[in-house]
């Protein structure tokens, strides 16, 4: 039986609660590796900090064009921890469809991976995630993630 979730609880709240009580527990298992909750939060916070440096503000839309992997989970959580909402863009779409989705959504930036970065052109600033959702910085970010409210766009 599933546990009840309090009204007003966000995905961030739920992940933070598990990470605080069980940081070494497996959070993500995919073909490119695994992440514990502590590793997932570290990578998501790094993504959130990098997005902040790219000018992403709470309420902004961010394109998320990442193949199914642990990087996708870290990227999605990082976008949410930046206070933004992500626009899921399937990397299997044709290039013109991807370009249209980025443009039509008004995404401020796009989070991608090594396999999709060349397909995005230079329409928007991009944040390229490495294996397991790694980005330019790890460890304690300079800019702490915001705490989204249930009323935020995500």
Layout of secondary structure:
Elements: H1 11-21, E1 26-30, E2 33-36, H2 37-53, E3 61-65, H3 70-81, E4 85-88, H4 95-105, E5 109-113, E6 126-129
Parallel strand pairs: 3-4, 3-5, 5-6
Antiparallel strand pairs: 1-2
- The count of helical stretches stands at 4
Radius of gyration: 15 Å
Low-confidence stretches: none
Mean pLDDT: 86
Number of strands: 6
Largest sheet descriptor: 4 strands, parallel
**What is the 3D form?**
globular
Q: What is the beta-strand fraction?
A: 15-25%
- What portion of residues is helical? 25-40%
Which CATH top level class fits? Answer: Alpha Beta
Q: How far apart are the first and last residues' alpha carbons, in Å?
A: 27 Å
The count of domains is 1
Task: Give me the CATH fold name.
Answer: Rossmann fold
Q: Reading side by side through the largest sheet, how are the strands ordered?
A: 4-3-5-6
- Topology order in helix (H) and strand (E) letters: HEEHEHEHEE
List keywords for this structure.
two-stranded antiparallel sheet, about 150 residues, Rossmann fold, alpha/beta
Describe the model.
By secondary structure, the protein is α/β, with parallel strands linked by helices. 33% of the residues lie in helices and 18% in strands. The chain has helices spanning 11-21, 37-53, 70-81, 95-105; strands at residues 26-30, 33-36, 61-65, 85-88, 109-113, 126-129. Strands 4-3-5-6 form a four-stranded parallel sheet, with helices on both faces. A two-stranded antiparallel sheet has the order 1-2. Strand 3 (61-65), helix 3 and strand 4 form a beta-alpha-beta unit. The longest helix is centred in the N-terminal third of the chain and has 17 residues, at 37-53. The protein is globular, with a radius of gyration of 15 Å. The mean pLDDT is 86.
